[in-house]
Amino acid sequence: MHPYQTEQALAAALARRQEDAAEQLVREYGGLLNAVVRRHAPGLDADDILADALLAIWQNAGRFDGQHSFRAWAAAVARYRAIDAVRRAARTRPAGGAQEMERLAGHTADEFLRWSWKICSAACPPRTAPFCWAGIFTAAPRPNWPPRAASAWAL
């Protein structure tokens, strides 16, 4: 096994499918490529995406023009493989239903409705409470809030 001294020599050896060049690629650029993948595809299987990126670099090393940095080219391949993985995941995963919304909101829909009813009941006289309640969900003009309304919002 001999180390390739320049990026161009490494790219040329990869294009010739030399295994020692692949080993050097992983040794020298593996950390960078792993960081690129993890940054652009958080929450996805980074090892899988990294393997895909390394395979793409191995298969397409002959396309490297040699005029620019091989390091930047390899990082760009990893970046685009990560972006492709994110796009695939977005197409195959459901957008999230009520459970996901509840997790993000920090409470269930029932808790929200109970809390809203408590505010309406505390803020409005009993005979106008239904109008207050309807106004919250329809954005209808609200009647003049009684003075105790301010304290109800502090719940």
Topology record:
Elements: H1 7-15, H2 19-40, H3 46-60, H4 70-92, H5 98-105, H6 109-123, H7 129-138, H8 149-152
Helix pairs in contact: 1-2, 2-3, 2-4, 3-4, 6-7
Summarize the structure.
Helix content is 68%, strand content 0%.
Report the end-to-end length measured between terminal Cα atoms: 70 Å
Q: Which range does the strand content fall in?
A: under 5%
Shape: rod-shaped
Mean pLDDT reading: 77
Low-confidence stretches: 145-155
Classify the secondary structure makeup into a structural class: mainly alpha
Order of helices and strands: HHHHHHHH
Q: How would you name the oligomeric state of the polypeptide chains in this document?
A: single chain
Main sheet attributes: strand count, strand direction, barrel closure: none
Annotation field: number of helices: 8
Based on CA atoms alone, the radius of gyration comes out at 29 Å
User: How many extended strands?
Assistant: 0
Helix content: 55-70%
